[in-house]
Design goal:
Length: 390
């Protein structure tokens, strides 16, 4: 039997785009050398057609060598570049980057910076309660960056989703505050920062009763209606809040039908009008008042809602991990977590997430038809090693 076996080629962490002819996707493992760990990616398509990916990398989350790095997929290339460091504070742990296209010629890199752990000085859980939110700016499509500025100095300020520009020109930036207590971040509360002058000044509004409901992904639905989809520190469900007045006031978060494992989610509105979300669709808590941190962060799933996030009738797994399932067996999967998604100018959907327990950032290209089931396996459709850039 062995002499007749065929070894399937595996995708290498070389940054090249690989076509998966069975799933109908194109994907890549973005290079991460020489860093041991990588996490919390964000994506941006620049006006010139390049794709930028940023994440935090170093020895381990919370250490002083954790910095923001950037890789680029040039418009005419089929290979991501090696990552380069784009933050500048070697005394703090710099985390959760996002890329905001401020104008045709200006990109903001926004991220958190917190006190770093040391061998002699270790926090009860983490030092997120010391974080502030910082910014660097680029005027050459992310090739060089300005000096670092502090955007929000309130201790414990944290962010994940990029700044959103509404149809009326208003900027919304979903943040949350972390506190120095023994709740293991279960006491975090969500706020929304609002700017009506292009980011020169900001004011804060709170999301009521949002304790433990964080990482608000803000999605404009039209007519001043804003949907917020949120991670749960209780590892029970994704939660949903609504604003009917361009972000001035918010409803109390309510759970949706989608499970959440206390890991980051990402949501956007597609050009079709549907809301798309990518997440780990597994829950491990049943008490919304308790904090839960399960190891399990697999599989990764994309979902569509056609009723403003109330129901999610189209769902497809984009990452199966090692294939283990069941509450006592799925811990054998590695972690595939913190996904982010965007829709490109071509209509393609780009997804990135931490893969293989933070060893790589995986990048995947799909589209809405793929989620809805319009693309099925029809046999070998070409060379599986073909590189294609969208």
């Amino acid at each position: 039997m062995k002499k007749d076996m065929v070894v399937l080629q595996q995708m290498l962490p070389d940054g090249r785009l690989y076509e998966d002819v069975r799933l109908g996707t194109v994907s890549s493992l973005i290079p991460n050398a020489p860093f041991e760990s990588c996490h919390a990616a964000d994506l941006l398509e620049t006006p010139c057609g390049d794709i930028l990916a940023v994440w935090f990398a170093g020895s381990d989350e919370g250490n002083s060598d954790i910095s923001i790095v950037l890789s680029r997929l040039d418009k005419d290339s089929s290979r991501w570049t090696d990552p380069v460091k784009v933050s500048d504070d070697d005394t703090r742990s710099e985390q959760n980057p996002s890329l905001f296209q401020k104008s045709e010629n200006e990109i903001w890199l926004v991220y958190t910076a917190q006190k770093a752990k040391t061998k002699d000085d270790k926090p009860f859980f983490n030092y997120q309660y010391t974080a502030e939110i910082r910014r660097r700016r680029s005027f050459d499509n992310g090739r060089t960056w300005s000096d670092t500025e502090t955007m929000f100095s309130h201790p414990g300020s944290f962010c994940r989703q990029k700044i959103q520009v509404l149809s009326n020109g208003r900027y919304l930036f979903g943040n949350w505050y972390c506190f120095d207590d023994e709740s293991r971040n279960g006491s975090d509360v969500s706020v929304v920062h609002i700017s009506d002058d292009g980011g020169l000044s900001w004011r804060e509004v709170g999301i009521p009763d949002s304790r433990g409901k964080v990482h608000a992904n803000l999605v404009e639905l039209g007519g001043g209606r804003i949907l917020a989809l949120m991670r749960s520190r209780s590892a029970d469900y994704v939660y949903r809040s609504m604003s009917l007045d361009y972000g001035e006031t918010w409803s109390v978060p309510e759970k949706t039908e989608l499970a959440n494992n206390n890991s980051s989610i990402s949501a956007i509105r597609l050009s079709s009008g549907a809301v798309a979300m990518v997440c780990n669709p597994v829950g491990y808590g049943d008490d919304a008042s308790k904090t839960c941190w399960p190891f399990q962060r697999c599989p990764v799933e994309v979902a569509l809602s056609e009723d403003e996030g109330v129901t999610w009738n189209y769902r497809r797994i984009i990452e199966h991990g090692e294939g283990f399932c069941g509450r006592y067996n799925d811990i054998n999967n590695m972690r595939y977590e913190y996904p982010v998604m965007m829709q490109s100018s071509s209509g393609k959907i780009y997804v990135a997430y931490s893969a293989f327990t933070r060893r790589n950032i995986k990048f995947v290209i799909i589209d809405e038809d793929w989620i809805r089931g319009g693309k099925k396996y029809l046999g070998i459709r070409g060379d599986a090693s073909t590189f294609r850039h969208y």
